[in-house]
Amino acid sequence: MARPLGLGLALALLLAMSATVLPLASSADDYARCEGAVKGWADSVGEGDNGGDKLNLKDLLFFLHIPRTGGRTYFHCFLKKLYTNAQECPRSYDKLRFDPSHPDCTLVVSHDDYSLTSKLPRERTSVVTILRNPVDRVFSTYEFSVEVAARFLVHPNLTSAKTMTSRVLTKSRAVSTLDIWPWKYLVPWMREDLFARRDARGNDSVPSSKKINAYDVEDMVMPLHQYINDPVAHEIIHNGATFQITGLTNNSYFNGAHEVRHCVRKHPDLGRFVLQVAKNRLDRMLYVGLTEDHEESARLFAHMVGAQVLSQSGALKLDVQEDQPSGTDSHSSMLDPEDEETNEHME
Ligand SMILES: *[C@@H]1O[C@H](CO)[C@@H](O)[C@H](O)[C@H]1NC(C)=O
Ligand SMILES: *[C@@H]1O[C@H](CO)[C@@H](O)[C@H](O)[C@H]1NC(C)=O
Ligand SMILES: *[C@@H]1O[C@H](CO)[C@@H](O)[C@H](O)[C@H]1NC(C)=O
Questions:
Q1: Domain count, the chain
Q2: 110 within some domain
Q3: Measured from the CB, is residue 230 less than 6 Å from ligand 3?
Q4: Does 79 map to a domain?
Q5: How many A from CA of 199 to the centre of ligand 2?
Q6: Of 47, 122, 218, 340, which one is the catalytic site residue?
Q7: What Gene Ontology molecular-function terms does this entry list (predicted)?
Q8: Residue range 37-56: average pLDDT?
Q9: Active site residue 143
């Protein structure tokens, strides 16, 4: 079994996500056109081989990082110890797209979706990912969106927040959460909302004295129910993990992603083709962890991935690495987009 953890649970997660697409009115013509587009896509991405040697780590490891699944922990506690900085491929977040000409890199960690593999030597690439119960993943995405956006409230107004931030970023040439999918959409959305609510409150607002539910503080922040019912959340969050695994996010390297994505949102029953592709993809991965089963997932990661990296590269590396400063380097493909410290420049 390539997948160390319950196939059933993994599929349940995908099913739960695919059930959230929005139903919209449609004509029969449009349905037929969409069905053709989605089926055509599904056929074209169907992998020919049966993934026979999927258990063997190939030359390149692509850690497909689904936001809010705990991937950072794997990055810091495993991958940073298993790979040297030089082995890590240059950062590949959106605008700073993956550079396949980089000669010796063997590790890619990215929020970029599966379509990134079209830029990689596919036969020599192993893919790993971590899935999380979609409800928890959505809560966590909301919380992180609010947290990052709220850091901008130190500025007197939205204009000033935007100006100051872009000035600092241009100067430091740092990677900001605002450069990285999906935060580049979710954070500005929430930021605008936070400022609007602050402006509406005026200067002398006193915090409401009634007992508050942190997910429904309307005078301060967009309530959770409003956030999760927005079409942006449907596309980027609810269906985000499935779209990442199938390479259909709106950050995709595949030109047809837009059409397929919109077709399945318009005609939810076509989502079954996307789901099938997602299942096949997971099936061919070297490893799929589950956030909920952290301990078992971490142990299996060590066995399935860690042990192979070590045996392929010589176990001595661990000792060598020990002597190096473990701080974030500017070259890293994972500049901790979800790490508080790296967002300090935005404060
Ligand atoms: C925003 O704040 C800056 C800095 O205090 C100020 O110069 C500017 O006039 C403000 N802009 C608006 C639209 O209030
Ligand atoms: C808030 O305070 C500032 C200065 O402290 C003042 O210029 C502004 O008019 C006040 N706004 C409101 C809505 O009371
Ligand atoms: C991706 O989705 C967001 C949210 O719906 C949207 O604002 C943005 O324009 C989209 N980007 C692209 C490249 O389609």
A1: 1
A2: yes
A3: no
A4: yes
A5: 10
A6: 122
A7: heparan sulfate 6-sulfotransferase activity
A8: 84
A9: yes
For range 206-221, the mean pLDDT? 80
Kindly indicate the confidence band of residue 167, based on its pLDDT and cuts at 50, 70 and 90: confident
Q: Does a structural domain hold residue 224?
A: no
Q: How confident is the model at residue 27 (pLDDT cuts 50, 70, 90)?
A: confident
Tell me if residue 347 is catalytic.
no
CA distances for 166 relative to 76, 103, 152, angstroms: 28, 32, 12
- The closest-lying atom of ligand 2 relative to the alpha carbon of residue 202 is 13
274-307 exposure pattern, b = at least 16 Cβ within 10 A, e = fewer: bbebbbbbbbbbbbbbbbbeeeebbebbeebbbe
Specify the length of the chain in residues. Answer: 347
Full residue range of the structural domain in which residue 120 is found: 60-132+286-346
User: What pLDDT sits at residue 88?
Assistant: 87
Contact 152, 346 (CB under 8 A): yes
Burial class of 203 by CB neighbour count within 10 A (0 to 12, 13 to 18, 19+): exposed
Ligand 2 midpoint to CA 34 (Å): 53
- The pLDDT, as a whole number, for residue 83 is 92
- Indicate the average pLDDT of the chain: 82
Retrieve residue 74's tokens. Answer: 């794997």
* pLDDT value at 24 more than 80: no
